[in-house]
Design a protein that fits this description.
Length: 324
């Protein structure tokens, strides 16, 4: 299943919905009033009933559209659930969606309550007063959920940048320190064209590319550079951690023997990534600018690969072995 969060609709400020609903309702109620035959009391009652029905219906539809455009957070995969939890306040998110459901129920209750009041009133001024009071109660409901709606827009803007991962596809995660060449490797063996720069933490989110094994597609994820400090991970590093933990069938660990992170630190990180207990391949990046003897000796030591095309074929071979 491919999860995408681009279908969530914008959550406007609460006043936006109130103004739209009141304006629409007044036009609708005026038409209904003119269609009624009878005395002024009957016309006034018909106007207010139509107004209340229209306001409640319009606002319910707007809130429903928001609620149903958001994913069911109880049914997210482990990867996306943890991604939500590290990027957002999960409790606040659930409370905010709950507040919209509460508002819908309150509006229906008030609409029924005030329609009953109208049925027992024969005074035009009181009829108008009941209508005005109803609109005031509806406005009060939306004032109470104003902050909740604002937070849901924060949620939407955050989640629309979540990576689109096919959780049913065979997946390879590229791991290693920042700026060791993972994004370059991804561009060599897939159709992806990630942003590549010469400073650490260029990859702010997951870059995803695909390569084929005959008719079968494999998904490759370029994880943000992750440092060997699990207890002090920043947000970018946690995303890398989750991708390797939940999405990867194979991990390609990328070493870089040029200036940058020490070999000792990279070996420590390799050991940490190995604890995920996933099949691992080792790739030596930037081999073309290193002494040939150094590359050969290191490749023997770690059973590594320094050619991107050889790595691609090795990944395909590993996939076939694992899926037998």
């Amino acid at each position: 299943m491919i999860m995408s969060f681009n279908s969530m609709i914008p959550v406007e400020e609460s006043d936006f919905y109130l103004e739209y609903a009141f304006r629409t309702a007044k036009r609708y109620a005026s038409i209904k009033k003119q269609a009624v035959r009878g005395d002024q009391v009957k016309k006034a009652k018909n106007y207010e009933v139509a107004l209340m029905s229209s306001v409640a219906k319009t606002l319910k539809e707007k809130l429903d559209n928001i609620i149903y455009s958001f994913p069911n957070f109880d049914n997210l995969s482990e990867f996306y659930e943890e991604l939500v939890r590290i990027n957002l306040d999960y409790v606040k998110l659930k409370e905010s969606l709950g507040a919209l459901n509460w508002a819908k129920n309150q509006m229906n209750t008030f609409a029924n309550e005030y329609k009953k009041k109208l049925s027992t009133t024969g005074d035009i001024d009181k009829i108008k007063g009941i209508g005005k009071e109803f609109l005031g109660r509806i406005s009060s409901i939306f004032r109470q959920i104003k902050k909740k709606m604002a937070y849901l827009e924060v949620v939407r803007l955050t989640m629309r940048d979540f990576p689109v991962i096919n959780e049913e596809s065979f997946t390879v995660a590229l791991a290693g320190f920042p700026n060791v060449g993972k994004s370059t490797l991804l561009s060599k063996i897939t159709d992806s064209t990630p942003e590549i720069k010469v400073y650490a933490f260029t990859t702010k989110k997951l870059n995803v590319g695909y390569c084929k094994d005959g008719v079968h597609k494999m998904q490759l994820i370029d994880t943000p550079g992750t440092l060997n400090r699990i207890d002090k991970m920043n947000q970018i590093e946690r995303v890398a951690y989750l991708a390797i933990k939940y999405c990867a069938d194979i991990v390609v660990f990328v070493y870089d023997l040029t200036e940058g992170y020490s070999l000792e630190d990279q070996e420590k990180l390799f050991k940490r990534v190995s604890e995920f207990d996933k099949p691992m391949l080792v790739y030596l990046s930037k081999a073309d600018i290193l002494p040939k003897k150094l590359v050969e000796d290191f490749a023997k030591k770690v059973d590594g690969i320094s050619d991107a095309e050889v790595l691609r074929l090795k990944i395909i071979e590993q996939r076939r072995i694992l899926l037998k």
